[in-house]
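Entry 14. Structure prediction run on the chain below.
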Amino acid sequence: MRRTASAAAVMAMTAALLPIPATLSPVSAEPENEESVPSLVVDRITPDAIDEDSTLRVSGEVTNATDTSVEDVTVRIRYSRHSFDSREEMDEFATGEGWQPDAEGPEKEFKGGLEPDQGLEYSLSTPAKDLDLGSYGVYPMVVEALDGDGERLGAQYTFLPYTGKDDVDELDLAWVWPLMDEPQRADDDTFLSEDLHSSVAEEGRLGRLLAAGAQVPLSFDPGDEDLVEELGLEEEGPEEDEPSPDAESPTAEESPSEASPGDEPTGDDATAEESPSPEASASAEDGATEGPQAPEETEEDAEGEVETPARTEGVPITWAVDPGTMDDVLRIATEEHDVLEDLLEVPGGTEPERHQRAADVPAQVWLREARRVLPADTVVTTPYANADLVALLRNDLHVDADASLTLAQEAVRRSLALEADTGYAFPARGLMDENVQQLYSSHGAHRFILRESAMPTASWLSTTPTAQAPLTAAEDDEEDPFALVADAGLTEVLSMPSHGPGESALALQRFAAETAMIAGEDVRGDRVVVAAPPAGWDPSTELASGVLEATEDLPWLSAERLDEIEPTAQDDREETRSGLRYPDRAAEQELGSGYLGEVEDVSRDVRLFNSILVGDSDPFRPAIVRLESVYWREREARAGATRSVVGQSVQERMQDVRVIPGEPVTLASSTGITGVLVANDLEDESVYVHLSIYSENSERLGIGTYTSDFQIAPGAKTTVYVPLSARINGTTAVHVSLQNSNGEPISPQDTVIQVNATGLGTQALLISGIGLLILIAALAPRALRKWARRQAAKANAAEGGVTGGDEDDETEEEPSDGEDAKSEQDAKDTDSEDTSRSEDTSGSEDESVPEDTGPGEDRSNDGDTRT
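Output returned:
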């Protein structure tokens, strides 16, 4: 509807036009000496829009916040009988610096003094017909307080929509209701603060947004049920009383530290079995996704069709969720978790303190209520953790960009037990370029929810265009893509302060005025306007509920479902918006290559860790994507601290797959077997590793064939038996390390086992013993002959004594000279023969072996003659 020309003339005569500030917040116009000014609060304006039969009522409070008494306070309404001509005029008026209304409305005077810190309530009312307004439009209104001298003490600038008698064409308004928060976790188990715990409570930000958007009563009472079990959030696993079937029998205490020559591997029980490669082992273990699985959400009717709940009351809205936020809520609701304290206040190189929190009951209640109400409306998602897709694609991080969209669908399914509509794309902060559009299209999206700065209104257009705008289609697009552009003015209005006294009332009045202004514009054809509050929207309960009630009650608004908005017909497409653009300011603020390079350093460690996991498991992928969120653009220090926490967590998890050091090994012979104990302390992941063992001195100690590649179940240990062979006595260091299938070490340092070989001393004794036996064998005949001669001599002596009688008892018969000579010659011949045999056998005579001698034996000659 066109404005009258007199409005511009009145404005020119009544006010000086000043530059338009960027803020849309209501301004309290007060004298320069603010210390003497009481506060003026407008608590309520009813109705939101008046007609000729309405009664306008304005109520609030004036408070003297100074230390000086104020006399005879008057509160009054001033307005203009000329409506605004454009939304830009409304912006200027809201600052209090534009043209001033000159018509006087109702007023109320309070006699006497208003003491410091004292307040008084006021209520002003007047029939709408007494205001003498013209036709349909939005009119300026000021509520002000004056002292007894007529000096203005304070004022609030607001708006007065008036329908008059005219029939107004309804404006279709579609809501995009955000449930988002900034990334709350570093790794999956570590939260950066306790902000999310308070946010999901009944009075928290996410609690208020869920309750207001639901438009039905919610229960934040946990009740007597086990909510984790009721929601199907329990993770399945073995009973506590039953040992895990994957557990291996060897323990660290049972690890062999000594090997003996007789030890042999005992088969499958003692030796780690060879397993297929991780790629070949992606079986049922790999099928489990991170976190609990969503329960069945719908039932099938008699015909086999899935019943989908639908909203039966209130304004239809589209829930825009950040899947990363939903994942964070799910985590605090189901498991114990760590919370960091003073992340940015710890000295350099010092880890922040952390404390453990139990599963959060308010988060369980929030999830229960979200699962109950969200399926009745359309649910769309941002990338996981609102990843900065433009920056990722610009820096060739296509894998991460693609993962942010895949993770988004998985997280919503896991946490909310529903499927998000993949036909919609909601890029971070509503901005994208052609590369991001192409990425989304590859995932099936063809409707893009964008900010107005991504597709600005054409410069020649003075009215508000419809939200639909065509986008350039790729060759392989199955459907023509189009944008649904959120109105920037409404986004600003919804961002107005609403938690202070009277702020909600002024914001609601501005919302009514803004939509009334759009509806009254002189345009041809139907239009749709999309209202999309910012991602971090933090409205009061009054504002959040009030704007939805106003959508139902205001006569010029008609609630529209976002999923029922179709692109404009080809013949009706006007150049009302520019083509897709990525604003220069956004490009300057996006995550830079330096920061993303540091994230990529962490990603390299993650890839190394993933290379030992069985199947395609990638447990740190959500953490990496969280580090690539747009939220870190303005939080450089916090981003760096969070990145360090993630990097440290990756290293700690990698060290959970380790070789358990044993005692030094002693070889009692030249060969033996020792056991190497390998542990997988990861709770949820099976690993496939390559065991590398080498001797520091292979010429001294050799390593035999052992099982080098094997799989270990979560929380299990296995012993690998390694044959050893020593060539030289002494201690040799054996280096043991774990690697992936490509030979890359997964730990920075090797485990060193000291092997001491002592078995070679036994061989020397054996050689010496053999030589001694040879020597004994050579000398034995001589000793026997000597023994025989002695025995014969004793026998002869005994016979001679018997024959000779008593006179010869004390005198031994001496041999004759001939017999003595013969005996001596025989002895020499025998000695010569024995010596020759000894030399033939051993090569020399061992003179260190003593001969047997008896008492009284004379050694003055050759030792063969008894005395």
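DSSP finds 20 helices and 28 strands in the chain.
Filed with the rest of this week's runs.
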